[in-house]
Amino acid sequence: MFRFTSLPTIFFINILVFGLWHLLPARFMTDHFLVSWTALEQGRFWVLLTSVFSHNMLLHFLINMIVLQNFGGMMERFLGTKRFISFFIIAGLISSLCHASFSNFFMDAPGLPALGASGSLAGLILLFSLLFPKERLLFFGIIPIPAIFGAFAFIGLDIWGLIAQAQGGGLPIGHGAHLGGAFTGLIYYIYLKNKSSFSSSTLF
């Protein structure tokens, strides 16, 4: 029996937008596929969502798609397609808003743009790690550690990175977006636990 899954559609949208970055005028893509506080002040609220499916560098695109492939299928089977899509989008929206807010209020950089699915993926990874804490994650893609330790290690790195950025340093990474996505994963985990309608045995 055919069962619809959302991953091919999500991959297709990401591939399409990646291609548009290399086909359409840069100004158009910057205006409509990058999120920043300035963009929101100018009324371009759609960038909260469009930026989630937006990548303009090949390495960034490949890393996020690999992570999505590794976690997306498992989490979609566990949550169901409708819940998975809803979670992916909501985590993305919150991560975009967190990036814009952090860059404006803590970094005094309202025009700092961001793009990518990393916020949604951070939410998926934390949700997976809370649901299945003893499963193995590869820390930095190399070191196998229990999922829950890996998730909180990445959160710690993002907090450290965000503090460094607020002080004028750090790397050009969307730590605020990652933390916003992770926060969404935590809230959704609490919701699932309270609802008590899921069993980890349904994942595999």
Give a topology summary.
Layout: H1 7-21, H2 26-33, H3 37-41, H4 47-50, H5 58-79, H6 81-105, H7 118-131, E1 136-139, E2 143-146, H8 147-166, H9 175-195
Antiparallel strand pairs: 1-2
Helix pairs in contact: 1-5, 5-6, 5-7, 6-7, 6-9, 7-8, 7-9, 8-9
Describe this structure in words.
The structure is a single chain. With about 200 residues, the protein is mainly α. The chain has a single domain (about 5-200), classed as Up-down Bundle (Rhomboid-like fold), CATH 1.20.1540.10. Helices cover about 65% and strands about 5% of the residues. It is built from nine helices and two strands, in the order H-H-H-H-H-H-H-E-E-H-H. It has helices spanning about 5-20, 25-35, 35-40, 45-50, 60-80, 80-105, 120-130, 145-165, 175-195; strands at about 135-140, 145. The chain has a two-stranded antiparallel ribbon. Helix 1 packs antiparallel against helix 5. The longest helix has 25 residues, at about 80-105. The radius of gyration is 17 Å and the shape is globular. Mean pLDDT is about 90; it is low at about 200-204.
